[in-house]
Amino acid sequence: MSESVKKPGMGGKWFTEMSMGKNITNYDSMLVLTHFKGHTMGGFGGSNKNIGILASTDILVIDQASVDLIYALSPDDRKALVERMETRHGLRQLSYMKELGMGNDRYQLLNLDNDNAVIQPADAVKGVKPFPKVQL
Questions:
Q1: CB-based contacts of 121: which residues, under 8 Å, 6+ apart?
Q2: DSSP strand E in 4-134: where?
Q3: Per-residue pLDDT reduced to its tens digit, 35-54
Q4: Which sign does the torsion angle of CA 21, 22, 26, 29 carry?
Q5: Rounded-to-integer distance, Cα 75 and Cα 102, Å
Q6: Other residues' Cβ atoms within 10 Å of the Cβ of residue 61
Q7: How many CB atoms lie within 10 A of CB 58?
Q8: 65 or 48, which is more confident?
Q9: pLDDT at residue number 98
Q10: Contact (CB, 8 A) for 37 and 52
Q11: Average pLDDT over the chain, rounded to whole?
Q12: 6 Cβ contact list (under 8 Å, min separation 6)
C-alpha cells in the first residue's frame, strides 16, 4: 500500500483535512478529469458525459454548465435525470459549492469547432439524443 499525507481542508464544513497519496507534494498543479452522470440516489455527479466535452479551471462552472445542458435537452430526453436531480436535492451541490467559494456559476460556452463562437446550452444540445432506446 502506498503512503499518504494529510493535507488541510480548504475551509469546508465537514472535513478539516484530506488524506492523499504522498507524492501529491511533488507537484505544483493537478489536472482533474471528471464525468457527469445521473445517479439513482443523488441526482448527478461530476462533469458532462454523452453530450460533449467541457473544460474549465473552475469546478463549479463545469458542474453548472453540465446541469444547464441537461435542462436544455428536450423534455422527453431530460425527464428521468431531471426528476432524479430535483427529488434527491442533487442541485444542492451547486449552491453549496458557491457558498464555499469553490468557483463561479456564470460562464460562456464556446464552440471550439466554430472559431470559439459563443453558444447557448440549447445550441450545444441541438439534435443530441443522449439516451438512445435499445431494442432487445
A1: 65, 68, 69, 71, 72, 109
A2: 4-8, 17-21, 109-111, 117-119
A3: 665 555 555 555 444 456 78
A4: positive
A5: 30
A6: 20
A7: 16
A8: 65
A9: 93
A10: no
A11: 81
A12: 17, 18, 19, 20
